[in-house]
Amino acid sequence: xxxxxxxxxxxxxxxxxxxxxxxxxxxxxxxxxxxxxxxxxxxxxxxxxxxxxxxxxxxxxxxxxxxxxxxxxxxxxxxxxxxxxxxxxxxxxxxxxxxxxxxxxxxxxxxxxxxxxxxxxxxxxxxxxxxxxxxxxxxxxxxxxxxxxxxxxxxxxxxxxxxxxxxxxxxxxxxxxxxxxxxxxxxxxxxxxxxxxxxxxxxxxxxxxxxxxxxxxxxxxxxxxxxxxxxxxxxxxxxxxxxxxxxxxxxxxxxxxxxxxxxxxxxxxxxxxxxxxxxxxxxxxxxxxxxxxxxxxxxxxxxxxxxxxxxxxxxxxxxxxxxxxxxxxxxxxxxxxxxxxxxxxxxxxxxxxxxxxxxxxxxxxxxxxxxxxxx
Length: 375
Ligand SMILES: CC(C)(COP(=O)(O)OP(=O)(O)OC[C@H]1O[C@@H](n2cnc3c(N)ncnc32)[C@H](O)[C@@H]1OP(=O)(O)O)[C@@H](O)C(=O)NCCC(=O)NCCS
What we know:
- The protein has helices at residues 40-46, 49-58, 64-76, 82-90, 97-111, 121-142, 156-165, 171-184, 191-201, 206-217, 225-233, 239-251, 269-285, 289-305, 311-321, 329-350; strands at residues 24-26, 33-35, 38-39.
- It has 375 residues and is an all-alpha fold.
- It has 2 domains: 21-218 and 329-350, Citrate Synthase, domain 1 (Orthogonal Bundle); 225-321, CATH 1.10.230.10.
- Strands 1-2-3 form a 3-stranded antiparallel sheet.
- Helix 6 (121-142) runs antiparallel to helix 16 and helix 8 runs antiparallel to helix 15 (311-321).
- The chain is globular.
- The structure holds coenzyme A.
- Residues 12, 221-222, 225, 255-262, 305, 307, 310, 312 line the site of coenzyme A.
């Protein structure tokens, strides 16, 4: 009943702190992204995805021995049940890879339900290892390419590249992927992480939390932005054409994917890092077309709208220059963000309270029921 017509003061829950977390800080000024106290700049320069995923799940960076043990666990998680291999290989090549991953995670949960009473850790490790393999069984099988062996690749980034392209990556492609996995790993209460925490708060299982998170990540306002950014950039032949057409899009009030952010207001600290890798890869390949078009759009967006590129914008150029097909961009986000989702699911379970906000009712006041013959 809504005699008192209140307005919703936090549309999209902007600015609301929904829980405590010890995992990550995101500062609105764009100079403050830390995973468990370590700056994103330091992590991207000095560490690996294996170290970062360990940090997110354990709270501390690993020692050498701990890192080797962790890598062994990730490798062990790569093989997937034969029934799932066969199912994935039969899915249509026209499907979207995010739908494949969403279904694959849910199906793995059918074959290997989460162990009773586990914090979530066991399934987290299992999924981090298995996700690239699950995508590979669908993607590479559909192309008639062999599936690389799951056990003999030490580097997770290299394994990911092989599952995405069916080829051995160059050193620079492998390191770009490692850095991208670090940058995408965690981002506080973004929409997909919040989905995972809401699901965890009902005491549901780990696979359900991640399946829901993948569905949320797929949307173009969230993880799907990197794919859409590439379609935009690749629709132009020159920086000049890009500037002219993007100006027209802005005048029609269209959104440019890969720009803006719900929390950052001035810059996304991850952009500078991924942009430098997009540039390095473009220079190495001797093809600056996509990078130059992207940079022209970036400059225009700042001049016209004071909007800055987020991580997804130059990730599109970096992934494209590494030979990755466009629909596979957002799955990379899944391979990485599963470490952040896992840390949040475990944190939510450790101090759980069912997440259940209220709504501001704006519908009709109570009224008499009218029988169907009277309507
Ligand atoms: C991420 C995003 C949803 C956050 O936005 P938000 O804080 O909810 O802000 P809004 O969507 O309400 O946008 C506020 C204003 O900026 C504009 N704006 C925001 N992002 C824009 C973009 N990418 N392109 C053009 N205009 C944009 C909106 O049109 C709106 O303008 P208005 O006030 O004149 O109506 C938004 O910036 C967006 O849609 N970006 C594109 C998708 C994307 O890159 N997502 C990945 C995020 S990491």
